[in-house]
Write a structure and sequence with these properties.
Layout: H1 3-15, H2 18-24, H3 29-43, E1 48-49, E2 56-57, H4 59-88, E3 93-98, H5 99-103, H6 105-116, E4 122-127, H7 129-137, E5 143-148, E6 161-176, E7 195-200, H8 205-216, E8 223-229, H9 232-240, E9 245-249, H10 254-258, E10 262-264, E11 273-282, H11 292-303, E12 307-308
Parallel strand pairs: 3-4, 3-5, 7-8, 7-9
Antiparallel strand pairs: 1-2, 5-11, 6-9, 6-10, 6-11, 6-12
Helix pairs in contact: 1-2, 1-3, 1-4, 2-3
Length: about 300
């Protein structure tokens, strides 16, 4: 296996043309075709349907395309991380942060901290919750930022790790606003008509919290899943197009609520859940990579009123 085969394959999946991809990859078309054939030989199955034009991927090819994007992305991230270690030096504080917090809370939080904590330099690694926790516990970053709810606690040993609470976040249902400024869809009890539901993929952290919200609904909720993804931003995009109801963190919809593009799909205080936003570190006496900047930031946060645990 050579990584250039995967790069070739991703190019072919995007252009649907051997000749165009060969041009973009700066090789002759016969050489490009041989590399795709080498990848198929490695996979042990046809990845490309050559009987159609434009070229189409087989079902196995579609599966490998998704995996190839992840593999190449991980390799690039690893390379960037190594370069970052070389360039950034010892004063760069490294955070592992789940995607949703990376998109919404983290940028504003960093801006606020920089106003009061001089010389703050940060590097963000955005991952899903599971991978962010693994990145942290493996010692690949200084700090972990994550949501917390008692029903879904992170499996972190309190004897080794400590945390500060940075604030709270509400998870609630939203839908596109109609011409009268009302939500196109509303949460309905189990006895009412089914409502199109934009859901998180199985295993997603926020998805497990949405399951809790639906289970706690007194009369149940008559939701019909029509779309799923593990990214809250993806659900928001679908909700903005009017496809259905999505449960989203309040920080992710501030602009859309202000512009009245999205509306609450349920009554305030009902069918919602409050989460903590927490930051974690290894206890100093057990830390594998003691970094003065990270220690100074932690002390600053603790002295600024963040609650400890």
């Amino acid at each position: 296996m050579e990584t250039k085969w995967l790069e070739d394959f991703v190019s072919l999946a995007e252009t649907r043309s051997f000749s165009r991809s060969a041009q973009l990859r700066h090789v002759t078309q016969p050489a490009f075709s041989r590399r795709i054939q080498s990848l198929e030989a490695w996979a042990g199955i046809d990845l490309v349907d050559r009987s159609s034009y434009p070229t189409r991927l087989t079902s196995a090819g579609e599966t490998l395309h998704v995996q190839a994007l992840e593999i190449l992305g991980a390799l690039q991230a690893a390379r960037n991380m190594m370069r970052g270690h070389k360039v950034a030096g010892f004063d760069m504080i490294e955070f592992a942060v789940p995607h949703q917090l990376a998109f919404t809370f983290f940028p504003h939080w960093v801006m606020d901290v920089r106003k009061r904590f001089a010389g703050f330099k940060s590097r963000l690694v955005a991952l899903n919750v599971h991978d962010a926790v693994m990145h942290f516990t493996e010692g690949s970053c200084d700090l972990l930022m994550a949501y917390h709810h008692p029903s879904q606690p992170l499996q972190l040993n309190p004897d080794r790790y400590e945390m500060l609470s940075l604030g709270q976040e509400t998870l609630a249902a939203y839908a596109k606003a109609d011409a009268d400024g009302q939500p196109l869809f509303r949460l309905q009890s189990a006895a009412a008509a089914r409502v199109p539901f934009l859901s998180y993929a199985e295993g997603a952290y926020l998805g497990r919290l949405v399951e809790l919200i639906t289970k706690l609904a007194p009369d149940g909720l008559n939701l019909e899943p029509i779309y799923e993804t593990d990214m809250a931003e993806g659900l928001k995009a679908m909700a903005l197009e009017g496809h259905g109801i999505a449960f989203l963190p309040a920080s992710s919809v501030k602009k859309e609520l202000k512009s009245k593009r999205l509306m609450r799909a349920g009554l305030p205080g009902a069918h919602e859940l409050t989460m903590d936003i927490r930051i974690y570190r290894e206890r100093p006496e057990l830390a594998r990579h003691a970094k003065p900047g990270a220690q100074a930031l932690w002390d600053f946060l603790a002295s600024s009123g963040a609650s400890t645990g």
